[in-house]
Write a structure and sequence with these properties.
Elements: H1 6-23, H2 28-46, H3 52-60, H4 64-67
Length: 74
């Protein structure tokens, strides 16, 4: 098994998201959801105790409840 640095994992997560986004005709809500997953995964790498509220605050500077309203997500 290989060992990877956090930076390598971060790059792989972002590259994976880019591959999906470049090759599927997704709408903006789906693209935003993929980006939210990427940000949550990277935040979890940096701090395994992170919660979605902190991801929202640190990555988007808004409460998660606001993100949930972007596309009528709940």
């Amino acid at each position: 098994m290989s060992d990877y640095t956090i930076e390598q994992v971060r790059e792989a997560i972002n590259r994976g998201a880019d591959l999906v986004l470049e090759n599927l005709s997704l709408g903006e809500p789906e693209e935003d959801a993929i980006n939210l997953v990427v940000n949550a995964a990277i935040s979890s790498l940096e701090d395994p105790t992170v919660d979605i509220e902190r991801v929202a605050q640190e990555q988007y500077q808004v409460p998660f409840s606001e993100i949930a309203t972007w596309w009528s997500w709940s």
